[in-house]
Amino acid sequence: MNDTALAKMENLVWQEAVQAPAWVIRQARPQDAGLIHEMYSRLSADSLYYRYLRPYKPQLEEACQLASLDDDRGFALLAVINAKQPQVIGVAHYILSLEDLSVAEPAVVVEDDWQGYGIGKALMAALAQEAAGHGVTYFRSAIHSLNARALHMATHGPNPSKVHWEDGLMIVERRLHENLFTKSAV
Ligand SMILES: CC(C)(COP(=O)(O)OP(=O)(O)OC[C@H]1O[C@@H](n2cnc3c(N)ncnc32)[C@H](O)[C@@H]1OP(=O)(O)O)[C@@H](O)C(=O)NCCC(=O)NCCS
Question: What is the pLDDT of residues 96-106, one digit of tens each?
């Protein structure tokens, strides 16, 4: 291949990269339930197991509840590919503790093909910022001991976390500070 052909090809690759559909993070809306359910149905058994800590296949009803969370119960964010046909590729939400409204349980899942590209971290940073703004001071989560990526995410970063083990699960309590996260495209 000569230099001109190579330059043309590099230009094409560059254009494709620039034009590739980008993902954004935004609040879930009731009309997203179908897209959320479609994402659930594309998840591998491993991702589902790590997310729910048991063999489980979420139904449309669960997607509907998540997409319609009220502020007084929790909050849900989506990572969405902004294309003609939008696609949900990540979901993060928290549910407020019934006993203590300053504590919430977060959960996050990213579609398998999109894992490892920073989406989970971005979702959790945005979720923590939102929670702190609503008066939540702690996230408390239970993580499978083999879930290296989630353990890393929960125990690294700007916020101090306390960790203990319960029934083979790692319980991570992370303090939230409103101003520790940079604003993202929520
Ligand atoms: C856990 C999960 C949400 C992480 O999302 P993700 O988009 O894949 O993760 P990111 O690309 O944002 O990476 C997050 C961090 O994990 C680190 N990481 C990636 N792979 C890792 C591994 N195998 N071991 C340890 N750390 C790892 C990354 O380096 C990054 O940390 P850094 O920013 O300090 O470098 C995603 O993998 C997932 O959906 N898993 C299945 C469901 C699940 O486990 N949910 C969590 C329990 S509710």
Answer: 999 999 999 99
